[in-house]
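Training component of the fellowship. As part of building independent skills, the fellow (R.M.) carried out the full modelling exercise for a liganded target. The chosen ligand was S-adenosylmethionine. The inputs are recorded below so that the supervisory panel can assess the work.
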Amino acid sequence: MGVDHLPVLVQEVVDGLDTEPGRRYIDATVGGGGHAYEVLASSSPDGLLLGLDRDPAALVVSRARLAGFGERFELVHSSFARLAEVAADRGYVPADGILFDLGLSSLQLADASRGFSFQVDGPLDMRFDRASSDSTAAELVNRLSAEELAEVLYRYGEERRSRRIARAIVEARPLHTTRELAEVIDKTVGRRGARLHSATLTFQALRIAVNQELVTLEKALPQAVDLLRPGGRLVVIAFHSLEDRIVKRFMRRESRDCICPPGLPVCVCQHEATLNALTRTPIRPSPEEVGTNPRSRSARLRIAERKA
Ligand SMILES: C[S@@+](CC[C@H](N)C(=O)[O-])C[C@H]1O[C@@H](n2cnc3c(N)ncnc32)[C@H](O)[C@@H]1O
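Fellow's submitted model of the complex:
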């Protein structure tokens, strides 16, 4: 493919996971194996890693990248929605650290046949797992009503021009390719000199809807906490504010003993804190990293530690 996926915030991830020999780590989004490689290297000679990915093509790449670590890693084709089950199956309970590096990889973005990018022409697919029965982006774009489409664009893209774009899509359909869709959006709301390409938020929104990314993340975070040993680390990298908000709220809530609404005279929730959030504000990449890896620009990393 000629494209490499450069992992972001590598040292910060290794420090955040507090890697040490003899420990067990889970990479819930192993992708091209960039972070996994560093986790294994920094936990040598006998740290172990279980890697999951929803995309079988990613596992082919990471398997090759990690081959030198021999028996120290296992890769499983699975969504992290099933994290607890996969970890139990493979003997990774309790785990010493769990990493989520959300979103998509440069390999997926650059592969025109995946339909993730408006910069290369391809079928409107956008499924991480092409063997799944999830609806493709083409199915959503051609089937949903203008109101439903506008709702998707607004909710998952925070696209302020969602209704105009949705109406234009409905008028122009059927749409089958990324270029066709990008052109409809550009004709409708394109503006020279704008900071983002006019199709950026629509593509983000469709990808999130196709893969049900936010619901899946909400399901996985509590499973990760349950899997960690006391003192074990949860490290999450988000690439847009919708994801980061979910992670921030989750870590904040799980760091509190009482989550009753304000104003109640006594606690009725009996919630007990399960985490210590170690990052009040997210860790961002340095200007040097953004210089060498522009994709890292929007990365936000948060770390929490499992309470005893
Ligand atoms: C940003 S990339 C990870 C890159 C990886 N950290 C590396 O260093 O190469 C995100 C990966 O998460 C995968 N992914 C997205 N949603 C997933 C899910 N629900 N379960 C498992 N993997 C998922 C994608 O297929 C993609 O390979």
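The panel noted the following from the submitted structure. The CA atoms of residues 214 and 243 lie 7 Å apart. Strands lie at 24-27, 48-53, 73-77, 95-101, 228-238, 275-277, 300-306.
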